[in-house]
Amino acid sequence: MTRPDHASRPSGAPLLAVDDLRIAFGAREAVQGVGFEVREGETLALVGESGSGKSVTALTIMSLLPPGGRIVQGSVCFEGREITALPPRESRRIRGGSIGMVFQEPMTCLNPVMTIGDQIAEAVRQHQPLSRKAACARAIELLDLVRIPDPHRRAGDYPHKLSGGMRQRVMIAIAVACGPRLLIADEPTTALDATIQSQVLDLIDRLRRELSMAVLLITHDLGIVGQWADRVVVMYAGRDVEQGTPADLFSNPLHPYTRGLLAASPRLDDSHHYSDGPLVEIPGSIRSAEGEQGCAFAPRCAHADFRCREAVPAVQFLSGDRQVACPIVIQEEHRVAAVRR
Amino acid sequence: MSLLSVADLSTHFRLPSGALRAVDGVSLDVGVGETLGIVGESGCGKSTLGKTILRLVEPTTGSIRFAGEDVTGLPPRRLGAFRRRAQMVFQDPFASLNPRHSIRKILTDPLIVHGIGNRRERARRVEDIVQRVGLDLAALDRYPHEFSGGQRQRIGIARALVLEPDLVICDEPVSALDLSIQAQTLNLLGRMKADLNLSYIFISHDLSVVRYFTDRVLVMYLGRVVESAPTRTLWSMPRHPYTRALMASVPDPARRRHVAPIKGDLPSPQNIPGGCRFHPRCPLATDICARVEPPLRTFDGDHSVACHHA
Predict the structure, then answer these.
(1) Beta-carbon neighbour count of residue A204 at 10 Å?
(2) ipTM for the complex shown
(3) Cα–Cα distance for residue pair B210/A124, rounded to 1 Å
């Protein structure tokens, strides 16, 4: 497997750094300032509901922004290099090469009239100067790597012959074919059944370790975040509102949105039953703040005051890797810190 | 007394590629005011079961009794009263509302179909239900595309409830909704149940939601019930290896990076394994499991399991 040369990059710099990214479709800004880093070998989860801008952010990193979308400002640095304004040839080299990707719907991503072996071989040959025969052999190795049983026979199958879980394994094989440094997985298991979902997440994590790559995992599922991520970015209405480790987030969520989400979701380990009382609700919807200035969560937030409606709260950096964009909780935290002192 | 009593119900489809036994001998009861959860993965027959109970799909064998009356053999023209009392809420609030009908028409049509009230009474009932589900009266003159997913699901619930049914079958009612909207919708269903003394059949693949929202649960696998128990009992002592695997598969922050609890793919319902349907994936399977299909056996009165090793 070839590894890109990253000797030019200062040691300790993140693998991927997204800074103050804003993306607009026409007049509407889908992403209004997102910043985060992915470090070598880690799993970073981007979590949020529909409309939070998490998928658009991922597409931008891969230079796959749909027509009509444009980067208003901000930067995306991969291996120390700005990749937002690369010529198409260059971004094709990165995409599928040092950045692999997996999407939600494996069926719509695979070519129905091509065998899976040929599809993997084609992906390999896009980036590596291999003969047809060598690429086919590599395809079989990759099918074996993603634990598809009987890979020699399976390589000759067409996608419709495979189950959803197997198709997603094929997509993963294509994504890791060229030994990426970063795997972007956008809701990779949302279309899969529970028992298959845990197999696929298990596989992605095993490949992360075996191929020493980092994973950017995009999901709406807090359970997945808690189980598989090293660090988490919570997104709301196009902004990152809170960052931290899963332990931080689950034991001490700071942003009122994160707190609300955790309180609103029934948990498997929680014996709260409807006969005990209703779930905690977050009122309104993500559209509640459309056309207003200030914090996008303010119309749904029980703690919001005048500051929240005046201006978008700045991201505050707390101890360790924690960040939060909420003036109210910052004040609270300071007060707690002062008492402790 | 049971409001709904289903005995040995099967729904088989004949496809060009062979028979599909979507539901294969399922029995269940739903009491007045009870919520029965049905969980399982795709292909387990949970949605077909829901549709068969309402006779939107015809059963192959078995019987459906509703409020003491056998509705299995009723001719379509005599199904009216049953259909008024047993309603359905669908998963996809985008696909299940006619985009060309105003909300007023969507909510009034069921009343007209069932010949309920005069124009003024119908208007009153529609206005009442739309407010009960948490929408403004102004919503009545708008069209489905003007609403968010969560609001559309409220409209879907209002359409089911406007007929004042006794039983509502909810087929994955919150699966298409964002997390913050799920809680709102579950709370609405809970409130409606208490206000209108409803019974629910709550079909879902989401175990966390089922644990919160149901009184009793059936776990289905490839057309069969593998385990049935009161919700609290099932969680404190799941007996079937499939139920345990399903619970262990739910992503849980407390289990960092643990290995997937179950291997192998879901078999196609067109190619159901012999013996116990779960045996090719089961960690406990022995010879007998490959040969003999285990019957549903009852433990402690209300906990039933179909497993040779339970």
Answers:
(1) 24
(2) 0.86
(3) 44
Contact A225 B253 (CB under 8 A): yes
Burial of A231 (C-beta count, 10 Å sphere; 0-12/13-18/19+): buried
Cβ of A279 under 8 Å from any chain B Cβ? Answer: yes
pLDDT digits (tens, 9 = 90+) for A36-94: 999 999 999 999 988 899 999 999 999 999 889 999 999 999 999 999 989 989 998 99
φ and ψ at residue B24, rounded to 5 degrees: -135, 75
Distance (Å, whole) CA B105 – CA A28: 33
Of B41, B251, B253, the CB nearest to A250: B253
Q: A12: pLDDT confidence band, cut at 50, 70 and 90?
A: low
pLDDT of residue A11: 54
| Per-residue pLDDT at A10 exceeds 70 | no
pLDDT tens sequence across A93-145: 999 899 999 988 777 889 999 999 999 999 999 898 999 999 999 999 999 99
- Given an 8 Å threshold on Cβ–Cβ distance, is B260 in contact with A163? no
Closest C-alpha to A47, from A208, A333, A257: A257
CA distance A315 to A332: 15
What is the least distance, in Å, from the CA of A318 to any CA of chain B?
Answer: 23
d(CA A122, CA B144): 44
Q: Across the interface, do B179 and A265 touch by the CB < 8 Å criterion?
A: yes
Contact A246, A232 (CB under 8 A): yes
- Residues B73 and B55: their CA atoms lie apart, in Å, by 10
Of A265, A268, A271, Cβ closest to residue B207: A268
| DSSP string computed for B93-146 | TTTSS-TTS-HHHHHHHHHHHTT-S-HHHHHHHHHHHHHHTT--GGGGGS-GGG
CA distance B94 to chain A (A): 15
Read off the pLDDT of residues B25-75 as tens digits, 9 standing for 90 and up.
999 999 999 999 999 998 899 999 999 999 999 999 999 999 999 999 899
Domains parsed from chain B with CATH numbers: 2-305 (3.40.50.300)
Task: For chain B, say whether A227 makes contact (Cβ under 8 Å).
Answer: yes
Question: pTM for this one?
Answer: 0.90
CB contact under 8 A, B187 and A261: no
Chain B residues whose beta carbon lies within 8 Å of the beta carbon of residue A260: 180
Residue of B nearest to A148 (CA): B264
Say whether B187 and A279 touch across the interface (CB within 8 A): yes
